[in-house]
Write a structure and sequence with these properties.
alpha/beta, Spore Coat Polysaccharide Biosynthesis Protein SpsA, Chain A, eight-stranded mixed β-sheet, three-stranded mixed β-sheet, globular
Length: 307
């Protein structure tokens, strides 16, 4: 039986979502603490990794990532690696899992999926769905009017990543959210599917083959592009991604959408150029990252050198 680990970070008391995630006994749960996490945080079932434990594990990496940021969950990826995980589920504490969550994971398995071909440099997964007036966070804005889903066939794939969707408040960018304020119920019919181009996926309901972890890093100090650029990077390195039907309902934690928009601006400005460059050379991502983020990635990767 494969070893499966759920990873997240939180600054909240145990949420409705995490209460539910604790109930999936065929998964181990790792929650990474932060400076704002309640001092008395205690799981009924699972491992809580305190700030002190993280600093003892790797103080240099901790300093490079910084505190009070969602990128602390990189420590969860390292914990999962050390636990011998075969599959890692990266989740958010405001995504409430359905009872069937985690029961239809196809990572590492061969299956038939719909395969969308586009000549654009990136593919937007939301455009396939019944909510196609929306677009995924991190999709290049310049490409939205040109999205084309007319070229589709069936293919066989063994995915390295399965990015499941989310009903309720979906993972769209701040501009899209301010314009539409959606409450989504995605039709299951189009799923699962993949494409021939790099596509954005997030770190809130995503299943990852453990062999990818050395290249999957939530880049700190780049705002809300942390997981999006991680997704683009691992795909440029060869990871195969499928999108699955919704398995959570997102009751989104409170956000200031103007703050979100500011944290997404780096992506608005660079996503198109980034995906074009990554297809030529995955390591070109470094020219888009601040030095401290590159340093953090190097420190993170040290933990995989003997793997």
């Amino acid at each position: 039986m494969s070893k499966k680990v759920i990873v997240t970070t939180t600054i909240n008391p145990i949420t409705k979502a995490l209460h539910k995630f604790q109930s999936f006994t065929d998964w181990d749960l790792v929650v990474i603490g932060d400076k704002k996490t309640p001092a008395n945080y205690k799981l009924d079932r699972g491992l809580y990794v305190s700030c002190e434990m993280q600093e003892k594990y790797d103080k240099k990496l901790s300093d490079a990532i910084g505190w009070n940021c969602i990128q602390r969950r990189n420590f969860g990826l390292l914990w999962a690696h050390d636990m011998g995980a075969d599959i890692v589920a990266v989740i958010d504490d405001d995504n409430i899992p359905y009872d069937t969550w985690g029961s239809n994971v196809s990572v590492g398995k061969t299956l038939k999926v719909s395969y969308y071909k586009t000549d654009l440099p990136a593919f937007d997964p939301i455009g396939v769905t019944n909510e196609n007036h929306l677009w995924h966070r991190g999709y290049p804005l310049q490409l939205i009017p040109r999205r084309d889903y007319s070229h589709v066939e069936t293919t066989t794939i063994t995915p390295d990543v399965q990015a499941d969707f989310w009903n309720g408040d979906p993972d769209i960018d701040a501009i899209c959210r301010m314009e539409h304020r959606p409450e989504c119920q995605f039709d299951k019919k189009p799923f699962p599917f993949t494409s021939n181009q790099l596509s954005p996926f997030n770190s809130q309901n995503t299943f990852i083959r453990s062999s990818l972890l050395k290249d999957y890093f939530l880049f700190p100090h780049i705002g809300r592009m942390d997981d999006i650029w991680a997704a683009y990077y691992v795909q440029a390195k060869g990871a195969k991604v499928i999108y699955g039907a919704p398995t959570v309902y997102q009751e989104r934690n409170e956000h200031d959408l103007v703050v979100d928009m500011k944290k997404e601006y780096l992506g608005y400005e660079n996503n198109l150029k980034l995906v074009e460059d990554l297809k030529k050379d995955p390591e070109s991502i470094e020219k888009y990252l601040p030095e401290i983020s590159i340093t953090a990635f190097e420190l993170y990767r040290r933990h995989f050198r003997n793997a």
